[in-house]
């Protein structure tokens, strides 16, 4: 069967630490066989053995698909560490404020209107009558609620520094690519 190592990984789940019944195993085997069928992925008269990497050809090895997931977690960790321990303190040192806008008073009726995103003038008048507020108060509440969802200046600063994280990702990708080849 093609992709034996993937099937071993899927069906044995870390070399037998987790077990599934025979029926489950058969279902998973059928799904795997259907998914990796050469009829689905390859042109006619080509098999998986024809494109497996060897000394004659340099096709990509399907086993390399294991690398991106751990790399993604490492990159997320690097991003988190850089934002928390480097960019945020640096932004505070520069005097960038991390204050958020005032919180709008909770109001279910206005919250429903806010979630509709486009509140028209007639709706504002109706809400003002319903709540016994002035239309100015309703507009002010909607503005405060809208500003509540916006990120602070410090958060924007930290996200703008993601260019460095992207450069680190690029360098890591080149390094790992050179290690694989």
UniProtKB/TrEMBL annotation:
Q: From the record, give the transmembrane residue ranges.
A: none
GO terms (BP aspect): ceramide biosynthetic process
Tell me the SUPFAM superfamilies matching this sequence. Answer: Homeodomain-like
Q: Which reaction(s) does the protein catalyse, per the Swiss-Prot or TrEMBL entry?
A: sphinganine + octadecanoyl-CoA = N-(octadecanoyl)-sphinganine + CoA + H(+)
In which compartments does the protein localize? Endomembrane system; Endoplasmic reticulum membrane; Nucleus
- Gene Ontology molecular function terms on file: DNA binding; sphingosine N-acyltransferase activity
The membrane topology of this protein is: Multi-pass membrane protein
InterPro entries per UniProt: HD (IPR001356), Homeodomain-like_sf (IPR009057), Lag1/Lac1-like (IPR016439)
Q: Which GO terms describe its cellular component?
A: endoplasmic reticulum membrane; nucleus
Biochemical pathway:
Sphingolipid metabolism; Lipid metabolism; sphingolipid metabolism
Q: Which PANTHER family does the record match to this protein? A: LD18904P (PTHR12560:SF0), LONGEVITY ASSURANCE FACTOR 1 LAG1 (PTHR12560)
What is the name of this protein?
Homeobox domain-containing protein
Give the source species. Ooceraea biroi
């Amino acid at each position: 069967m093609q992709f034996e190592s993937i099937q071993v990984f899927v069906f044995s789940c870390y070399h037998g630490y987790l077990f599934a019944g025979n029926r489950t195993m058969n279902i998973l085997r059928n799904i795997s066989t259907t998914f990796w069928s050469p009829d689905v992925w390859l042109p006619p008269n080509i098999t998986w053995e024809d494109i497996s990497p060897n000394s004659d050809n340099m096709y990509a090895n399907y086993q390399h698909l294991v690398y991106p997931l751990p790399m993604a977690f490492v990159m997320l960790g690097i991003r988190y560490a850089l934002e928390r321990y480097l960019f945020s303190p640096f932004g505070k040192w520069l005097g960038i404020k991390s204050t958020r806008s005032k919180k709008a008073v909770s109001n279910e009726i206005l919250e429903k209107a806010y979630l509709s995103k486009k509140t028209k003038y007639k709706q504002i008048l109706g809400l003002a009558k319903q709540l016994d507020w002035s239309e100015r108060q309703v507009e002010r509440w909607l503005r405060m609620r809208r500003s509540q969802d916006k990120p602070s200046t410090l958060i924007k600063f930290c996200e703008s520094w993601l260019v460095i994280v992207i450069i680190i990702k690029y360098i890591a990708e080149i390094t790992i690519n050179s290690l694989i080849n």
